[in-house]
Amino acid sequence: MKPVLQFFAFAALLAVLGASAHAQEVKAGDLVITQPWSRATPGGAKIAGGFLTIENKGAAPDRLIGGSGDFAGKVEIHEMAMNNGVMTMRPLDKGLPIEPGKTVKLAPGGYHLMLMDLKNSLKQGDKVPLELQFEKAGKVTVSLDVQGVGAQAPAAAGHSSGQHDMKK
């Protein structure tokens, strides 16, 4: 009887670990959205960045065209890039294309969501609901995991993404 109990305990542990590993995976049509996160903001800050990864597993392109959340007055898609040795940031007024079979990472120093007119500070440990708007997949709700002020990646990513966060 003891091996049977051990089996069920092990199965329960696997179920819990599996659920936590996939808790931040959201599917919308052919899109898979993972690791949505943001950084904590100091009191009085009115802007923050939102980051996540979008994989298009389909045969047709889609486009991230916007977002919204009760915590912010406005959500825009922005791109940071180096131009002649100067870091620039600009809104992507036509949205961000997600090509078929490709993965697009929104991360510090590159593509990101600009969360503007914050109504409250974002605090480390918070989970902030954010609705993303895609051209084809429609509206998708994710939950931004708020990391520490200087975080460069979500806690779940650990050391696996490290130096590649700046690449597109």
Please give a handful of descriptors for the protein shown.
Immunoglobulin-like; disordered C terminus; single chain; disordered N terminus; globular; mainly beta; 168 residues
Q: What does it look like?
A:
The chain is mainly beta. The protein has a single domain, classed as Immunoglobulin-like (Sandwich). It is built from one helix and eleven strands. It has a seven-stranded mixed beta barrel with strand order 2-3-9-5-4-10-11. A hairpin with a 2-residue loop joins strand 1 and strand 2.
What is the fold's blueprint, element by element?
Blueprint: H1 2-22, E1 26-28, E2 31-39, E3 47-56, E4 62-69, E5 72-83, E6 86-91, E7 96-98, E8 103-106, E9 111-118, E10 127-134, E11 138-147
Parallel strand pairs: 2-11
Antiparallel strand pairs: 1-2, 2-3, 3-8, 3-9, 4-5, 4-7, 4-10, 5-6, 5-9, 10-11
Summarize the structure.
By secondary structure, this protein is mostly beta strands.
| Shape category | globular
Supply the number of structural domains.
1
Number of alpha- plus pi-helical segments: 1
End-to-end gap: 54 Å
